[in-house]
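Ticket #497: bound-state structure for adenosine-5'-diphosphate.
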Amino acid sequence: MKILFAASEASPLIKTGGLGDVAGSLPDTLAQLGAEVRVVLPAYRNVARQLQSVQHYGSLMIPGAVEPVALHSGRLNDNGPLIILVDAHGLYDRDGGPYADSSGRAYADNANRFAVFSRAVTALALGRGGDNWHPDVVHCNDWQTGLTPALLAREWNRPATLFTVHNLAYQGVFNYSDFRRLELPAALWSMDGLEFHGNFSFIKGGLAFADVITTVSPTYASQICTPALGYGLEGLLSYRQERLFGVLNGIDTDVWNPATDPHLPSRYDADHLAAKIPNKAALQAAFGLPQRDDVLLFGHIGRLVEQKGADLIIGVLPRLLQQDKVQVVVLGKGEPHLEAALAAAATRYPEQVGVILDYNESRSHLLEAGSDCFLMPSRFEPCGLNQMYSLRYGSLPIVHRTGGLADTVVDATTGALFDGTANGFVFEHASLDALWWAIERAIQFRQRPPVYWEKMQRAGMARDFSWRASAARYLDLYRFAMDHPAVPSLVASGSRG
Ligand code: ADP
Ligand code: GLC
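RESOLUTION: The complex was predicted; output attached.
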């Protein structure tokens, strides 16, 4: 099976969050399972030079791009999938990140940047622009690739399309004037198409037109069909429910392996948990905290935004820090008021709170290994990778029961402790009291004989989070998409043009 995998970021080339991890690891596993995979990404600054033997792949004429769009190809390593870079003059090769400038402001021309990208993916999906390679399926991810299923739905000779929602909160909504400026087919401006309450929605292109829609956990797949987490798209998603599937993300078990992790001063596994302990001292040192072995160390990593509940962590600190044998470390970057509140907490409690307001891959590994508990009070979480990393690193996650957190963390109830499945602490509502209740349970649990804690660590470390099962599931869904092409109402009603 030939798969074109399109995403706006892929680790280690370019990453701002979990999408990067997924696009960086799922294609490799699909290839190991026998698929022929090509990954397509925008040619952001410094991406091409991380690839081996970069070659000219082809070129495309695309509306919205001032010159012909150049396509380059290369690989990260000999066995990795072919990576195709879409190099549109002036659109991707910039200072700053993939979506925003260095000060965090979204680029004003994002509609055009990702329309050009979606159109390039569409052309590649139809075998144009390169070596006449015709994929069977194009796998699109998030709104930046949302126009591709919509544009492909109008083509007779198209491959099957699968669209994955990594986070429905980010939809790529722009104005009608942007829609006009991008010279998209007029028929797409419809309630059944890209129009959304008078605006122009990229994500609707994926949701309304893809043969199969997936999201990144079973629980989130049902949550997005409700008003609470559907953002007004729950009707469309419910209507397409027979084509909507939840597939839990895997993790890269080579990159996230405490037994081989080069970022750790002391490597360990489930049979050598004592070797985890030196990482705690290293973590305390890295975050400027006193190196004490007798404290319970809580960690958090994440984008500092409302979704992730960093405000709940900040809010719970006064109660938590009354306990004297407790420390908290936070690694994150995001909204200025959350950064300021965390920095203030670190100043106020220098012995107990350590904060690094930065994006730092190496520190994130150390934090997973050195902390005892990982705080993840996300208000919603489509999948979440950090709770899986912490399970694998024997740091017990404390999570809100939502999305992928609900699907991966098993609460320390008496029954789950008895049958050996318990691996963390789960609370029901994203509130301060509920978070505090779970933290208190962790603190009390720690006072029991260590075998109980270690049993939970081992339960988490033993769980298989590799991509194998989920990648096999994607292969099944690609086949389903190929066998059951969707005929969206816009196309069925004959409004091609
Ligand atoms: P999301 O994609 O919503 O941000 P995920 O849990 O799926 O959440 O993935 C986040 C990814 O980004 C993880 O790999 C996490 O370690 C990483 N990450 C987030 N913030 C930072 C940071 N400040 N430093 C290093 N890595 C980070
Ligand atoms: C999104 C979600 C996160 C998920 C990631 C990868 O960024 O917020 O929950 O793990 O995508 O699918």
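RESOLUTION NOTES: The two ends are 31 Å apart (CA to CA).
TICKET STATUS: resolved
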